[in-house]
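Q: I'm writing a short explainer about BAG family molecular chaperone regulator 3-like for a general audience and would like to include a description of its predicted shape. Could you first generate the structure from this sequence?
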Amino acid sequence: MNKAYMLKTRPRIPGASYPARGGVPEAAAGGWEVRPGGMFVQKRSKDSRNHVPNIKVIVKYGSSHHEIILSSQASFGELKKMVGGATGLHPQDQRLIFKDKERDSRAFLDVAGVKDGSKILLIEDELSKERRLVESRINATMEKASNDIAAIRFEVDKLAKQVTSIELEINGGKRVEDIILLNMIESLMIQLIKLDAISADGDVKLQRRTQVKRVQKYIEILDVLKVRNPSICKVQSQQQRKIYKGQLLPSFQEQRKQGNFTNNNNKGQLKWETF
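A: Of course. Here's the predicted structure. Afterward I'll give you a sentence or two in plain language.
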């Protein structure tokens, strides 16, 4: 029988690695993984990490020392979270120095050579802290702006209902007091001034622009209604005047026919001529 065929069909021993294409062990495609630096190690899994022993590392921060117990296969990012609980430093503001080299948060302790009792230096990153504080202030400003816009939107919704009600009354031929229209316009202008005072970016800026357009639309509607409202009042006044004249007061010619009016000039001339 062919020797190559015998090697091909020979049963394989569990746990042993056999050569494959490219010189990479076949086990690397299954239960192995590539670590930083090109090392082949056993794959990490939740089940396997339960059997990994914990180690104690000593983190020096200023004049204080903190003992942290964690998995030997944990990352430096996980260590930063635990150190943050002990020191109060945000993980993004931490710089961990091991063997005179700053370690990335994604790097693993065992790969870097961290063992039980290893000492790690902690330094506060001032630039990261300042940058994070600036971002925090910006986020707080945006949140406040969003809340202010939400409050204005609530007020505009109430004013919008009143504008719709007034529009229906005027379109139906009813008279609306001018002071009501003026007060409505003034209230909307106040909301417009509040919106103009809000500084916003991104989505919050879009929200502000939407409310500005809404307020401007309702102000334009009220301006049109303010112009139409006096014309309705004038028509009503003319109709009332006609009814009043027709029912209560006779015309000037009718009163002259009834002898209610006399010519004062003629009356005076008659008296003078008589004299």
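A: For your explainer, you could say: The chain has three domains: 13-43, 48-124, 131-247.
Q: Perfect, that's easy to follow.
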